[in-house]
Specification:
Number of strands of chain A: 40
Structural class of chain A: alpha/beta
Radius of gyration of chain B: 23 Å
Number of strands of chain B: 0
Largest interface: A-B, 67 and 58 residues
Strand content of chain A: 15-25%
Order of helices and strands of chain B: HHHHHHHHHHHHHHH
Largest sheet of chain B: none
CATH class of the largest domain in chain A: Alpha Beta
Oligomer: heterotrimer
CATH topology of the largest domain in chain A: Alpha-Beta Plaits
CATH architecture of the largest domain in chain A: 2-Layer Sandwich
Chains: A alpha/beta (957), B mainly alpha (436), C mainly alpha (219)
Distance between the termini of chain A: 75 Å
Helix content of chain A: 25-40%
Chain lengths: 957, 436, 219
């Protein structure tokens, strides 16, 4: 600090005295003590120059001096340049480098390509070279970047909550190893989340092999009962994969296929592919959903039935009965009708259809669904079972809890995850955990579990370590580090290796797992493309061993409220709670940020006289939680929905945000709502969801239909002509509202997060927002999503309003915002009919932690206080492409420029390109009969246009 | 001593033997307190940024702009009264013009502050002015804001000139009558050696009338220009050709309201009953009534246009009448026009307190109208998704109160140290009555 | 009782005159200041840890710019040479020179040399070296003739005006691609330069009316 202060002082002094010419070198020599003398001469400067007061003082000064008109005298401050000492091989400063790698979420590998600048990862994209990804990404993949730079990540081992060295950890591990060797692993338990990494599995196998008495337990915060269903149906464990790309008719019962989570990318890719095929006239793309509370899957579905979670079984039996598989439970008229439609579509598309039940439902339901798929001949096509890649299988959490209670566990090693927080209240893990004599926790954060363990060991992030994992369809993805860890952290592999005294490096460990089948050239190739070919497990001969007699529990819903607990679409099970990008990400349906709510149906809200923000207590069994109400149209009348992942004890970002719903997880029976009278302000980015008669989102009946043609409008100005003429097309029929585009944009364009209060004031900074509207009855309305970036109007009102020429039009049709010219009159935003402009009301960027500065994209200006900003069509990417093209003396190719939102979109809903050339993807999109302008009456000639949503999933009748 | 001499003495002696010294001190203390608040608010604004206000997206203009329009409107009355009526040869104005002009001046100062303070980067405000620079960039002349800059600046300069030229002869007589040396020097300096010779009077006449002739069109042009700030935007409730005349009338209306208040106040405080006579009050009342009715017509015209301007204008209109900010609309109607109706009766027009009350209510009413025009149009403009609400914060109010402090301080200083009434003109008119 | 002597009139008139002069003079002064080398830093020398002489290395030794500024043709940034580039020669010659101590220290400790930037643009300006080089804009057009710079100094005012002058009329600056790094230039006349430049513009389709839009440099 004082060093910096001194520099400030020197700069101040020098500019005060003005620069000096050197007449000779001996003047240079006296430089050192010249500085020294200055230091003594102006101690006041050094003292004044420290801390926040100074900054504010200077700002204040800056303001007043400026108003006095003396501002012109400011002079560029001196800068230093620090070149490499030895430049790394292949590194060109100022140029980006890309590496194929993979993240992991709940044991599923998420293939990525990481962009690094000066060895800093600054952007992640999905790796289309990997078989389990056809491009695009998810919010979690995008935000994993910030997770790497999270200032709250633990950077040193903790013993009893106090920092310590790894050396001590190693000694401790050595002692543990000796104990285990003598006892054969007596009382040692390893607890992990879902494990996908073959290398890690190998290590665990080795561990259990070495210490036979040791046990490996695994748990997932998100209940998944499909595995047991598969095992009892097939008589063997297997991995289930569904291929939406081939499924022309999908019936999803309380199964959020397209929703957030490890499977989102795979499913969204598949759905997008299917839907695009349907648009092109190849087959159908039907999606029928029955669910208690609207999910983005339900919103995407053409046919949605709100139904209590407890009725799913009955509904499924109804569908099954119509396909002569089992008898049906009594259904009401609505359910009958829906079952009829579902069964009909399934039958019509037999072999290319699919029934799927939410993973949290009872095994019987899954088995029945499998049976239906088998009968329809969908097995091996839309639904496939793969050989289990792993011989060793973990034991469940509950068993561990029993043992811990019984005091049979001497040492518990928690490898990743946060079980103390993220386990259902009914398991009683937390209490049992406290009784274990020796507790290790390895994780990214010193979280609830870490703080309750004797030893907390900081884990390396996936972007800074070697590993491997399996994509959705089984192909192995290789994780290679994009950056060397700057914190004292170790990878999961390292820790287990250390425990077992394995001296090989992480890289060697991973390499060894695949050494048998791959020589070095093949390995290099694998690293290059990010996956190891032909590693997908073979399908199992799917012949059910059990007879298809189903002991479905006839769960008739006795009156009363029913609880639905789901992982949060933004922070998932809580693992992303300390990630501002995701905390501030508006949840798809409610547009809530920074917190969760108790979602109720409009009917219930009316009955109890509840309004958004009213505090209620939700009681289920012996447990209860308190949270604010949110009324959600389309939710089943008696369902109460809460999201997991909030109400954290620790973390500068996550602490005190929302409420913890884990206590209620797994609670059966009726729930009760007590109105507490208080209110809590919820920060939502959208207040008004009804579309009324405004056609913001337009619809056509089938893919064959077109919108009525817009009458041509009179206009004083001639249409802009240029080559290229940049334009964007957003297909609302492909948009599933997953928010990947928003996070992609945030990562690419250095968009600051502003926090709950600011969002509540309507000051969120997202350049791209995904609007959500509904029309029709609040019981079961038609929902629609609409991504809204800047429209880049040809006749832009904002440009007319700006007094200083900060909002101007570029020759290639971009609606530019020149930050350094902007003085912040905000006229442009007042005049903008689409309200896509964002203003820096405060200095949102200056106070950022160094880590948060490191994540920024150097190609995009960081905006200061008081300037307007907005979507630029990723002008930095356009510039790059333009310069490359010019150097090669050719026009810019179609698809050469991909905007961040476009490359992030998993369904290819967003297309960007040159609309002056009729043979580009964007021109073809805009040529379709579904193309329309948003707010045509504003007559602004937007360059961003939309393609109408298609109501029906098939063109027949 | 002749009537003329009396008048002149009465007026020009005020600074020296201030009749209401104690009251003045109390008022001045109050004004200074508000002024302090102004500086605090501005300081906080510079340190933290415009985020301290309630503004947001979509309502990214809030108090600063509506208050700006309000202040500028108030400013207009002074120029109207003195310049317009001077050219029309309305002698009775002579009793009012001096402090009306002063009022104009200080109101314009307050107005001028707002657009600068409202900027995200106030220290760059001069980029709105066309000046040669190493960036090779000029202002954007299509933008109404660029012209705002010129409008306000011109208006300020002309008002200062007009007011100063007008006051010179009185400064001279003040100088001559002054007993204390320092007063003699003070007035003497600003009297620019006026000796009241025929040549002086001739030149003075020309220049005074000339400036008046320049000032009058400004009254119309400036506020028409300000209205473009809104009318040029494609926002339902703004994008209307009614705005320029509508704004000018509203401006005059609010201006006369403030003038009436000041008149009644000064008349009472400085005991100028026989200079500022009841008939002046009555005439002010009439002016209020007339401009008020014209403004009311503006309201009607706006509603009428909306009814024919398609769906969006209609929804905005409904929103103003019944929406979240309906209070601002009905408030404006109530304060502007309800008490105003008293002005139909001679005996209320002649009643100082009533006039004061009406003036006050109209001032409030016009403020509400500016607020309504700005907020109710922006908070629900086009896309349902971007609807959002505006809530003024403490700093919104404190800065507003602060500017009132600026105004009061300046005005009180003027009252204390300069002749508040154009003595020579009053005497002149008396003279003409006597001999004409 | 006369307060002011007749001379007072003169005083007042003089005051008015001063006022008028000030109103005209101040803007002119400001304008001059903005153009001044003090503000633009043209010709000013930064104190450097090592008194590196371009005059010697380029002028006397005839080392090409690209030997040290390697990425100038491929990257947005020309980049300062890594320490080991300096040491490729200076591990052989001037191995003991005291002025090179910081270089040897840097090599030994791995601590980079802290040069102080001479050619420096604001962060919101995105200048790309490679495209300018590719178009044949010679180094000297912006950095001047470094062969007479014993210590590096700024040769041109890096104001927006300076950039725009060229972007609005590129012809004179567009030299032969293969000679971009030639320190003194080819001794062509203005006419020759312009003629060549215009040929290049035709050949490469360089449109000045597109070169001066804000988005070219600002993002």
């Amino acid at each position: 600090m004082s060093e910096g202060a001194l520099n400030d002082a020197l700069v101040a002094v020098r500019s005060a005295k003005g620069r000096r010419y050197w007449r000779s070198l001996d003047e240079l020599v006296d430089r050192a003590d010249f500085r020294h003398r200055l230091k003594e001469e102006f101690p006041a400067l050094a003292r004044a120059a420290s801390g926040l007061n100074r900054r504010d003082l200077l700002k204040c000064l800056g303001g007043t001096i400026a108003l006095a008109g003396l501002d012109g005298c400011e002079r560029a401050p001196d800068e230093e340049a620090l070149p490499y000492v030895v430049q790394p091989e292949g590194e060109v400063p100022g140029e980006a480098r890309h590496y194929a790698s993979a993240l992991e979420l709940d044991g599923v590998a998420q293939p990525i390509v990481g962009e690094t600048r000066a060895a800093r990862p600054i952007k992640l994209e999905g790796n289309a070279a990997h078989p389990s990804c056809s491009g695009g990404s998810t919010p979690f993949m995008q935000a994993a970047l910030l997770e790497l730079y999270d200032p709250d990540r633990s950077g040193a081992p903790l013993y009893m909550g106090r920092p310590t060295e790894w050396a001590r950890v190693d000694r401790e591990l050595a002692q543990l190893r000796m104990r285990l060797d003598t006892t054969g692993g007596e009382g040692f338990r390893l607890l992990t989340g879902p494990v996908g990494s073959p290398t890690l599995l190998g290590q665990i196998e080795a561990l259990v092999g070495r210490w036979p008495q040791a046990r490996w337990h695994s748990w997932s915060p998100v209940t998944d009962r499909r595995a047991e269903a598969i095992e009892s149906w097939l008589g063997m464990p297997a991995k289930r994969v569904i291929h939406l790309a081939d499924a022309e008719a999908v019936v999803a019962l309380d199964d959020d296929l397209l929703g957030a989570g490890p499977e989102q990318l795979w499913h969204a890719n598949g759905w997008g592919e299917r839907r695009r095929a349907y648009q092109a006239g190849e087959g159908a793309a039907l999606l029928l959903v029955a669910e208690p509370s609207p999910t983005i899957t339900g919103v995407t579905a053409g046919d949605r039935l709100p139904v209590a979670e407890a009725r799913i079984g009955a509904l499924l039996s109804g569908v099954a009965a119509r396909l002569e598989i089992t008898r049906s439970f009594p259904l009401n008229a609505e359910e009958e009708a829906w079952a009829d439609r579902a069964a009909e579509k399934l039958r019509n598309h037999a072999g290319r259809s699919l029934v799927s039940v939410g993973a949290h439902h009872a095994p019987e339901l899954h088995k029945l669904a499998f049976a239906i798929n088998e009968k329809l001949g969908n097995l091996g096509k839309t639904e496939r079972f793969l050989q289990p890649a792993d011989a060793l299988r973990p034991e469940p959490l509950q068993a561990l809890v029993e043992e811990m209670r019984a005091g049979e566990v001497a040492t518990l090693f928690v490898l990743g995850g946060n079980p103390v927080y993220a386990t259902a209240g009914c398991t009683g893990f937390a209490e049992a955990f406290a009784r274990v004599p020796l507790r290790f926790h390895a994780g990214l954060h010193a979280d609830e579990t870490g703080s309750r363990s004797h030893w907390h060991l900081p884990l390396a992030h996936h972007l800074e370590c070697w590993s491997d994992g399996r994509g959705m369809e089984g192909t192995v993805a290789v994780t290679q580090p994009l950056v060397r860890p700057w914190l004292a952290v170790r990878s999961r592999h390292r820790l287990l290796a250390d425990l077992m005294e394995d001296r090989r490096s992480d890289r060697e460990l991973v390499r060894a797992t695949w050494s048998d089948q791959h020589d070095d050239t093949a390995w290099e190739q694998a690293l290059l493309v990010g996956h190891i070919p032909k590693t997908a497990p073979a399908p199992v001969a799917s012949t059910p061993t059990t007879s298809t007699s189903f002991a479905l529990s006839a769960s008739e819903p006795e009156r009363g409220l029913r609880l639905a607990v789901r992982p949060d679409p933004s922070v998932w099970d809580g693992s992303f709670a300390s990630n501002p990008w995701l905390q501030e990400l508006p949840k798809p349906l409610t547009k809530l940020t920074w917190g969760n709510a108790v979602h109720v149906s409009p009917a219930l809200a009316a009955e109890r006289g509840l309004a958004n923000g009213d505090l209620v207590r939700v009681r289920a069994g012996i447990r209860s939680i308190t949270g604010p109400i949110w009324v959600l149209p389309g939710q089943e009348a008696d369902t109460v929905l809460v999201h997991l992942g909030y109400g954290r004890e620790l973390g500068r970002v996550s602490q005190g945000v929302g409420f913890n719903a884990y206590p209620l997880l797994g609670e059966k029976g009726e729930v009760f709502l007590d109105v507490l009278g208080g209110r809590e302000e919820l920060a939502t980015t959208q207040h008004h969801f009804e579309m009324e008669e405004d056609e913001y989102v337009r619809f056509v009946e089938t893919a064959a239909k077109a919108l009525p043609p817009e009458p041509p409008k009179a206009n004083f100005y001639p249409p802009l002509k240029s080559e290229p003429a940049w334009g964007m097309a957003i297909d609302l029929d492909l948009c599933i509202g997953c928010n990947a585009c928003i996070t992609g944009c945030v990562a690419e364009n250095n968009i600051p997060m502003v926090g709950k209060e600011e969002v509540a004031k309507g000051r969120e900074m997202h350049w791209l927002r995904v609007d959500r509207y509904y029309e029709g009855s609040p019981e079961n309305p038609t929902h629609a999503f609409q991504p809204v970036p800047c429209m880049h109007c040809e006749d832009a009102p904002c440009e007319m309003g700006c007094p200083v020429n900060a909002a101007v039009h570029s020759p290639d049709g971009l609606n530019l915002q020149v930050y350094n010219r902007c003085i912040g009159t905000r006229t442009c935003s007042s005049y903008c009919p689409y309200k896509v402009r964002r203003f820096n009301w405060f200095d949102y960027t200056g106070e950022d932690a160094p880590e948060m500065k490191a994540v920024r994209n150097p190609e995009v200006t960081v905006r200061s206080r008081g300037v307007m900003e907005k979507c630029t069509y990723c002008i930095q990417r356009i510039s790059k492409a333009r310069i490359e093209a010019k150097k090669e003396n050719r026009p810019i190719r179609d698809g050469e420029v991909q905007t961040a939102c476009q490359s992030a979109c998993p369904t290819q809903a967003i297309v960007f390109g040159d609309q002056s050339d009729l043979d580009t993807a964007v021109s073809r999109r805009k040529a379709s009969g579904r193309d329309y302008d948003l707010l045509p009456e504003a007559n602004t000639r937007p360059r961003t246009t939309y393609q109408a949503r298609i109501r029906k999933g098939e063109t027949s009748e | 001593m002749t009537r003329e001499a009396q008048v002149t003495r009465e007026v020009v002696r005020i600074p020296e033997r201030f009749p209401a010294a104690r009251e003045w001190r109390w008022m001045f203390a109050f004004a200074l307190a508000l002024l302090a608040l102004f500086f605090v608010s501005v300081g906080v604004l510079f340190v933290r940024g415009p985020g301290i206000w309630g503004n947001n997206i979509p309502v990214d203009w809030g108090f600063p702009i509506s208050n700006y329009v309000w202040w500028l409107g108030i400013g207009h009355a002074g120029t109207l009264i003195s310049a317009m009526l001077l050219l029309l040869g309305q002698e009775w104005r002579n009793a009012l013009n001096r402090f009306a002009e002063a009022m104009t001046l200080f109101a314009v100062v307050c107005a001028g502050l707002y657009p600068i303070l409202h900027l995200g980067r106030p220290w760059r405000f001069y980029w709105m002015a066309p000046y040669p620079n190493t960036m090779d960039v000029w202002p954007q002349f299509k933008s109404p804001l660029t012209w705002d800059f010129f409008a306000v600046l011109t208006y300020l300069i002309v008002s200062v000139l007009f007011w100063y030229i007008g006051i010179i002869p009185d400064l001279a007589s003040a100088r001559d009558r002054a007993k204390k040396r320092r007063w003699q020097v003070f007035f003497g300096l600003f009297a620019l050696g006026w000796r009241g010779s025929a040549r002086h009077w001739a030149r003075w006449q020309t220049s005074y009338r000339l400036t008046a002739a320049i000032a009058v069109p400004l009254v119309v042009s400036v506020h028409s220009e300000i209205s473009m700030l809104f009318a040029a935007g494609p926002i339902p409730g703004w994008n209307s050709t009614v705005f320029p005349p509508y704004f000018v009338l509203g401006a005059a209306f609010s201006g006369f309201a403030v003038v009436s208040m000041l008149t009644v106040w000064l008349r009472a405080m400085l005991g100028l009953k026989d200079l500022v006579q009841v008939r002046h009050l009555e005439l002010l009342g009439l002016l209020l009534l007339v401009t008020g009715l014209m403004t009311a017509y503006g309201y009607v015209a706006e509603v009428f246009n909306a009814a024919y301007a398609g769906k969006r204008e209609l929804t905005t209109l409904q929103d103003r009448l019944f929406g979240a900010y309906a209070w601002s609309f009905w408030g404006a109607i109530l304060f502007n026009f309800a008490p105003l109706q008293l002005m139909w009766w001679k005996r209320w027009r002649r009643h100082p307190l009533v006039l004061f009350g009406v003036g006050l209510s109209v001032t409030i009413g016009m403020w509400l109208e500016r607020y309504m025009l700005l907020v109710t149009s922006l908070y629900r403009d086009w896309l349902g998704s971007s609807f959002g609400y505006f809530h003024a914060t403490f700093w919104d109010w404190s800065l507003f109160a602060g500017t009132i402090g600026v105004f009061l301080t300046l005005f009180l200083l003027f009252v204390r140290f300069l002749p508040v009434i154009s003595a020579f003109e009053v005497t002149k008119s008396i003279d003409e009555e006597a001999h004409g | 009782m006369q307060i002011f002597p007749p001379a007072a009139d003169t005083a007042v008139r003089f005051a008015v005159l001063v006022l008028v002069i000030a109103m005209v003079g101040l803007p002119l002064g400001a304008w001059e200041y903005l153009q001044s080398t003090y503000e633009t830093q043209v010709g000013w020398v930064q104190d450097q840890p090592v008194p590196f002489s371009h005059a010697h290395h380029v002028g006397d030794d005839g080392i090409d710019c690209r030997y040290c500024h390697t990425s100038v043709e491929t990257s947005a940034r020309a980049n300062l040479p890594p320490t080991h580039v300096c040491m490729t020669c200076h591990s052989q010659i001037w191995t003991g020179a005291p002025v090179l101590e910081p270089v040897r220290l840097s090599m030994a400790t791995g601590e980079p040399i802290r040069w102080r930037r001479v050619a420096q643009l604001p962060d919101y300006v995105y200048f790309n070296h490679s495209i300018h080089i590719d178009r044949g804009v010679a180094c000297r057009e912006c950095h001047g003739d470094v062969t007479d710079m014993p210590l590096m100094r700024r040769a041109k005012p890096f104001t927006m005006q300076f950039c725009l002058d060229c972007h609005r009329d590129p012809a004179p600056a567009l030299g032969p691609r293969e000679l971009v790094t030639h320190p003194q230039g080819l001794g062509w006349t203005e006419a020759q330069k312009r003629a060549h430049g215009e040929r290049v513009m035709r050949k490469l389709g360089i449109k000045p009316d597109e070169l001066d839009n804000c988005g070219v440099c600002h993002r």
